[in-house]
Amino acid sequence: xxxxxxxxxxxxxxxxxxxxxxxxxxxxxxxxxxxxxxxxxxxxxxxxxxxxxxxxxxxxxxxxxxxxxxxxxxxxxxxxxxxxxxxxxxxxxxxxxxxxxxxxxxxxxxxxxxxxxxxxxxxxxxxxxxxxxxxxxxxxxxxxxxxxxxxxxxxxxxxxxxxxxxxxxxxxxxxxxxxxxxxxxxxxxxxxxxxxxxxxxxxxxxxxxxxxxxxxxxxxxxxxxxxxxxxxxxxxxxxxxxxxxxxxxxxxxxxxxxxxxxxxxxxxxxxxxxxxxxxxxxxxxxxxxxxxxxxxxxxxxxxxxxxxxxxxxxxxxxxxxxxxxxxxxxxxxxxxxxxxxxxxxxxxxxxxxxxxxxxxxxxxxxxxxxxxxxxxxxxxxxxxxxxxxxxxxxxxxxxxxxxxxxxxxxxxxxxxxxxxxxxxxxxxxxxxxxxxxxxxxxxxxxxxxxxxxxxxxxxxxx
Length: 462
Known about the structure:
This protein has 2 domains: about 35-330, Cathepsin B, Chain A; about 335-460, Immunoglobulin-like. It has 8 helices and 17 strands. It has helices at about 1-30, 105-125, 135-140, 155-165, 220-235, 250-255, 435-445, 445-460, and strands at about 80-85, 175-180, 205, 210-215, 235-240, 275-285, 290-295, 310-315, 320-325, 340-345, 345-350, 355-360, 370-375, 380-385, 390-400, 405-415, 420-430. Helix 1 runs antiparallel to helix 8 (about 445-460) and helix 2 packs across helix 4 (about 155-165).
């Protein structure tokens, strides 16, 4: 009995040490402010992109920006007082906010974020949540930058979308957005295009259309235009002027984290449009001076705003001066099965049978699926099935030797599109008593330490 309590004491001691060190490192991580602004300063921009007559990051005079709204394409409709794609029919159709890091790639992030949400909407499935590669634009579509090949110095979201559609050499000969797993983001425009995965051309999701509208200053008409576009097209990209005063929009997001907080209107002169974000909704509120606020998603990480999202009063920071949208046709792409689920024991005895359930769904239809299971002990279940989309599949397995095993499973549909791997660990021992099992189940909440504790238990010969 003393030996047993000694072993438990050792495990608890390691927990305390690990918890304390992780708390300190986590606190330090949360204190970091992401230097992720998409700002173009006057003294860093050549005369081709900024002078006193052209107070935005383009060579075009402001007077020309209001003349390209095609009302044959855009229908102004009656809109409700409140709307958000983050909570439409009780579901979130947006994808998580990302962090552009120390790179002025806000336009790329806004465009990609809009495309990801539009795909969820067009497919009628808010859980597809594609994660596309911003690095692909920076590295493989250099003409998307304001200054060729310098995407971290700024660029238009519309240009990124247009080039992703372009099948000429300038568009890398292919139409489509590339998955982030094929070319992870590195916040640099110096990464060669050749660094993408070898089968990149099989990992592209085609785009069908995009457009850019120079709408001009805030007005009741422009608000109705933006609202109509958000409902008809889905979330949109918009440009804004981020004031250089550090006490304004940038730092505001690090201090305000409630979904009801909004950045207020402030009188300011238009010098430039130096940031691009996604708008996904609005709320009319007569108690607010300008009558309400827009709901947006930024690319400054999840510590900014509320999980990377924000609200901003109508007309503030010239938001919506330029508008961009994108479209997608669900009939031209077959999505791979969703990541399977695994449900079953995480602890067991050697020689004892364990029962697991697996399931997945087809995100864009009702394709049947097959399962591939690797039990981690050199035994496999190779493409068992077919099973109906959403069906729960039960499979039993027995491990003969004590060890920490990793169960891996993936699914494929009838078109041989494969999902990512899902994993779950199981610790097989000769004999786990109930109190130790209870302790380990609690400790599962701290996945980074789980392997360490299991390793300690192996040393102690559990």
